[in-house]
Amino acid sequence: MAIRAIITGSTGMVGEGVLHECLLHPDVEAVTAINRRPCGVTHVKLREIIHPDFSDFSAIGDQLANYNAAFLCMGVSSVGMKEAEYRRITYEYTMALAHTLARLTPELTITYVSGVGTDSTEQGRSMWARVKGKTENDLLALPVKQAYMFRPGYIQPTPGLKKAYTIYKVIDPLYPLLKMVMPKYICTLQDIGLAMINAVRFGYPKAILEVPDIRELASR
Fold first, then answer.
1. Which residues, given as ranges, of the chain have pLDDT below 70?
2. CB 178 within 8 A of CB 171
3. Which of 20, 49, 134, 154 is least enclosed, having the fewest CB within 10 Å?
4. Rg (CA), the chain
5. What is the pLDDT of residue 199?
């Protein structure tokens, strides 16, 4: 299958890693990154759209047709944020793009990065988990071919990429031990990128993918 993907979040760690795997993969023929600032990557497969307003994609709607994958990797830490602001960035921005893409291309595969502990009930005490849970639920309700929610725990960065958070660099020497002690919560950034690509290629029996699912799908 020739994959034509839209990616968000490529100015951050997860999106950069997913973009990296897409540019390397022979089945990905074209990638469009939508960002508010340049991601700093150039490649023959890559086109970048700089779009300042993630609450409204109508101005670039004519550029978003004819894709069969959307890898939604944009995210922000909830630390120090009020719920309204976190919801605006995490939920409203994501759904604004997802609704636009669903209208344009019903034969779309959507993958979305949430995280371990996401609250599907939307009723729990953790603010970030409720917001992520609502985002997952509403993405799964869209009229598209298929949608998959990725719930990674600790993510081992891809060597050579630039956007890894400082905490990951600090923990890096402990990665082999963490993988041994907590295998159900540890995957690599490469695993996430390959699993997203393979979700488009092969599908997966679960709509919500925990870490073992992500690793299994990546290995196909």
1. none
2. yes
3. 49
4. 16
5. 98
